[in-house]
Every structure is written in C-alpha cells, then in structure tokens.
Specification:
The complex is a heterodimer of chains A (387) and B (140). By secondary structure, chain A is an alpha/beta fold. In chain A, 36% of the residues lie in helices and 17% in strands. Chain A has three domains: 160 residues, Aconitase, domain 3 (2-Layer Sandwich), CATH 3.30.499; 96 residues, no CATH class; 119 residues, Aconitase, domain 3 (2-Layer Sandwich), CATH 3.30.499. In chain A, the strands form five sheets. A five-stranded parallel sheet of chain A has the order 13-12-10-14-15, sandwiched between helices. Chain A has a four-stranded parallel sheet with strand order 8-7-6-9. Chain A is globular. In chain A, 55% of the residues are buried. Chain B has 140 residues and is of the alpha/beta class. Chain B has one domain: Glucose Oxidase, domain 1 (3-Layer(bba) Sandwich). Helix content of chain B is 28%, strand content 29%. Chain B contains five helices and ten strands; from the N terminus they run E-E-E-H-E-E-E-H-E-H-E-H-E-E-H. In chain B, strands 2-9-10-1-8-7-6-3 form an eight-stranded mixed sheet. Chain B has a two-stranded antiparallel sheet with strand order 4-5. In chain B, helix 3 links the parallel strand 7 and strand 8. In chain B, helix 2 packs parallel to helix 3. The two termini of chain B are 16 Å apart. Classes of the chains: A alpha/beta (387), B alpha/beta (140). The interface between A and B is large, with 39 and 38 residues.
Chain lengths: 387, 140
C-alpha cells in the first residue's frame, strides 16, 4: 500500500497512518472492524477539508472496511428550515465523494446504534462521543481519531497500533465515588462536563449500575467535550477484561455542592424568552429514545408561542420514523435528519437555548456565542409545552 | 536561559514568541481558524509559538489545524504537554512542527515569568527559552 500498488489515494492514506503511528511509537498497524468518519460538515471544515476529501476520492478505489459517517450541515430530508442552506453545494460534494468511496450514508454521531462494537474489537472511530461509548460501554478499542485519519483508515482498513489499542494503556488511575444521586440526563451531563474538565487521566466511576443508557450517553458525550476522555470505566457497565485498574488509584469523591457550584458557572438560568430554541438530540437520539420522547410529546397540545422545539436524529432513521412526522408537526415540533446545530449554521440565531446535553452546551456557547441552559427532557417539556 | 527537554512529534523549526493558553483546547469550537484566535482569549497566535497543556473535545479538530495553514493563520509551531492523535494528524497535514514538552507545568511557569523567546534546538533535544527573539538565538 505504501508503495502505491493500490493507487495514489491508498498510498497517501497509508503514509498518513504510518506518520501518526511513528509519532506515537507504534510498532505495527492493526486491522479495524468498523471505521466512523468525523469531520464531514462543510460549514465546519470548509474548502480546506473539502479539497482533502475530494483528493482522496479522486482515484479509482473504495473503502476496505464497513464505514459510517457523522452528521453534515444540511437536513437532507428537507423537513425543517431551521438550518441555513448556504453550504449545500459544498456539502453535497463531500457526501458524493464519501459515498463514492463506499461510506454508508448514516450521517449520524451514534454509529454504535448502526453496528454494535464487540469487546476488545479494534476500531478507528472519529466523533468524540462515539469513541467514548465504544471504549466505555462496549469495551471496544479505539483512540480519538482525528477526522482525516478516519478516512485514511477506511481506505486501508487499518490504523496504527498505539494508545487505547493496547491493554497496557487502558488503566484507570482515578477511583471516583459520586456522593449524591443523579436525577436525570441533565445531571449526568453536568457530571460529565465536570469530570472532563477536572480529571486528566482514565477514571473509574463507581455505582453507575442505576444510570439509564440515556444518562450514560449524555455523561460520556459531555466528558469527551470538556476533556480528552476516550475511556471512562463505568462500574459495572464497562465489560470486564477490557481495562485494568492501577495499583494505587487516586481516590476522589464528588459531592453535590461542588457540582452545583460548577453548574452555576456553566449553565445560565433556564428562563424562557420569546426566541428560545429547545434542542434535544445531541448526541442524536436512537430510535427507542425518539419513540419514548414522541410518546411524551403526544400528551401535550402544542409548543408554547415563541419557542422552537427541535429533535435531531440519524439520517438512517428517515424511513422508520416517518410515521411520527404528522403528529409532531401538529404539535409544532421540528425534526432534523442527519444534522445538528453543532455542525451547521442557523438560519436565524435563537436568543436562548434550552437543552439536556452538556456537549451541546459546550459547543453552542463557544461556536455560536449562544446563551445555553441545561435541563432534563421532562423538565423542559413541562416548561415549553402547553397541556 | 534554560533548556527544557522535548520530544519532536512532527518535525521542523520552531522559534518565536510564546502564545500561552491555560486550558486544553478543542480546536473545533474553541479556535476560529480564519482569524487565528482562541475564542475568549485576546490576540492571535499567528506566527507565534502556541503553547497549550493539551487538546480536548472534538475529533474535527484535525481539520481546523489543517485549515490554519490554508487560511495563513498558522502558528510557527505548537508546544503541548499532552499529545493526542487529533493534534498530530492536523499538524502533519498542515506542516506545523509539534513538540511535546516533558515537564509542561514547569515550562509554562518559566516562560510566563521569563517570557521572551522560544527556540527549539534539535541537537539539544530541547527548547531554549531566551529573553527576546533576537538573531543571537536563531543561529544553530
């Protein structure tokens, strides 16, 4: 591959992987079972990223492994007008290039809902929340791969054997007790933001058996935003034999008072203004999460005046969810497929955002300078839906 | 003058005034590649030595690092405490030298008080910190 016998694109891809591997002192490459490509939104990566992707797609080759793709900056279903269409041409060029190479048009940040990773399976995944889920919940092995490297891994079917691919690097060094009960996914988000910001190595969190899968997902997405966490050992969720614990881990207890102080620093007061956006679906909702939320919404008459209510879900769910669209439209609720506010631009910027996602809070406040507050889904619905 | 040991992750020359950031950086989200700034921090890191404790957040960061070169806002080089693949791949594509400084906290404390000029000297496997970026530090 390095010598160019598979063509120029594969040669360039292999060169990139080998260079990163050399920098990390990898002794060899490893075959991967699934690649997830991040960094595909044209409004985020612009012309430099587009040129890079088209260059790799220009030769007559295709991906050597099952490959899924992150959300883009366009709602390909055309069902909502919340997002700007300014970038559609560049976005469609990126999509065409990736699909030509053989990527599945999933356009979602939850590839583990498309194909569940197995314990100790090697992957090359981008998308920070997906990486944290793969390692921490499924016990698979992937580093936080940068977007360009994920394409290189798809072209070669391999990545460098370093970091979390090696058991010797999957060692929990913090032993964390949570000194209070988590109530909902917003609570889990705040804890994730806190751990991401304060702990710089792999933690083991005790007593997560009572957390819902939705809480786990929001917790990990948040920790992977404010931190560089690819693996957070969740006791008893993380599969055994996919990690070890250091001989003398540092003991940490996190109490509610400390978290409350941190929450006040991060989240503004959840007041509702006339141009408030409610955003649910960061990371994208799974089919069962979406069904549950539609059921809750169906008990209300409609969304309060002045509030825009938005769900974001995988593009791959377009057929299975179409039957809910009339109901949601009648309540004034929007659904966007294969995109989200973090990877796109708003047509009209909201004055205020309410979300249950710590990850959305982190990026929306930084990227778009928005005023964001964090609340659980049930609390938000109570406030913004009319009975 | 003091020498701080470093590992050369992405090779190249590295000389310039430091631009110090105290928190880990998610290049996507926290960096505006067109302006060459870190949101919430004054000034541009363009043509300076960007000093960060490490990276965090989005895996899209690699493309943002790459875009710094395309938009002409790249730093001379990046000196980091922790090194993630996201940053390595971005620096390789953008041709931005990347150095891992072994004792980051001491390094940051020293340049904060003695500031001035950072010069990577390959033969010393280290960074020499001087007072000003004058010609005397540039020669090998």
């Amino acid at each position: 591959m390095l010598n160019g016998e598979y063509g120029e694109a594969v040669q360039l891809a292999m060169r990139i992987i080998v260079k990163v591997g050399e920098a990390l002192r990898a002794e060899k490459l490893v075959e991967v079972g699934h690649v997830h490509i991040s960094g595909v939104s044209y409004s985020n990566i612009g012309d430099p990223g587009l040129k890079f992707i088209e260059k790799l797609a220009s030769s007559n080759t295709s991906f050597r492994v099952f490959t899924t793709v992150n959300p883009t900056c366009i709602d390909l279903s055309g069902r909502t007008s919340i997002f700007s269409m300014e970038y559609i041409d560049g976005q469609l060029r990126i999509n065409r290039a990736l699909e030509k190479l053989g990527a599945y048009p999933t356009y979602t940040c939850i590839p583990y809902e498309i194909r569940r990773p197995s314990p100790n399976e090697h992957l090359a995944w981008g998308e920070s929340n997906a990486v944290a889920m793969a390692n921490s919940v499924y016990g698979a092995r992937t580093n936080r791969e940068g977007g360009p490297l994920t394409i290189a891994a798809a072209l070669t079917g391999r990545t460098y054997y370093a970091g979390l691919h090696l058991m010797e690097n999957r060692i929990a060094r913090y032993w964390v007790r949570i000194g209070y009960e988590l109530v909902d996914e917003a609570d889990a988000s705040i804890l994730g933001l806190y751990i991401g910001e304060h702990l710089d190595d792999i933690p083991l969190i005790m007593g997560t058996g009572g957390w819902s899968t939705y809480m786990v997902k929001e917790f990990l997405a948040s920790a992977a935003a404010t931190g560089s966490h690819a693996l957070v050992v969740l006791d008893p969720i993380t599969p055994e034999n996919t990690y070890t614990v250091a001989d003398n881990p540092e003991n940490i207890t996190i109490d509610r008072e400390e978290i409350r102080r941190f929450y006040n620093k991060y989240s503004s007061t959840p007041e509702i203004h006339d141009d408030t956006l409610v955003y649910i679906g960061c990371p994208h909702l799974s089919l069962s999460e979406f069904r549950y939320m539609v059921e809750v919404i169906s008990r209300y008459k409609c969304v309060r005046r002045g509030v825009t209510f938005l769900f974001t879900i995988p593009y791959s769910l377009i057929d299975t969810t179409s039957k809910y669209m009339d109901l949601l439209r009648s309540k004034g609720v929007h659904v966007a497929y294969g995109t989200c506010p973090i990877v796109s631009r708003f047509r009209d910027k909201p004055g205020k955002v309410l979300t249950n996602s710590g990850k959305a809070l982190f990026y929306l406040s930084r990227l778009h300078g928005l005023d964001v507050s964090l609340l659980g889904f049930r609390d938000i619905v109570e406030r913004v839906m009319v009975k | 003058m003091r020498i701080f040991p470093v590992e050369e992750i992405v090779s190249g020359e590295c000389i310039g005034e430091p631009f110090i950031v105290d928190h880990r950086v998610s290049f996507f989200g926290e960096v505006d590649p067109v302006k060459g700034v870190i949101r919430g921090i004054e000034g541009s890191f363009r043509d300076k030595v960007l000093v960060i404790p490490g990276t965090r957040g989005s895996t899209v960061g690699s493309y943002i690092v790459y875009a710094l070169r395309e938009y002409g806002t790249a730093p001379k080089c990046i000196v980091s405490g922790d090194i993630e693949p996201i940053l390595i791949i971005g620096c390789i594509l953008a041709n931005i030298p990347l150095l891992k400084v072994i004792d980051f906290n001491e390094f940051r404390g020293y340049i904060r008080s003695h500031g001035g000029c950072i010069v990577y000297r390959r033969e010393l496997r280290g960074i020499v910190v001087g007072e000003r970026c004058t010609d005397s530090y540039r020669g090998d």
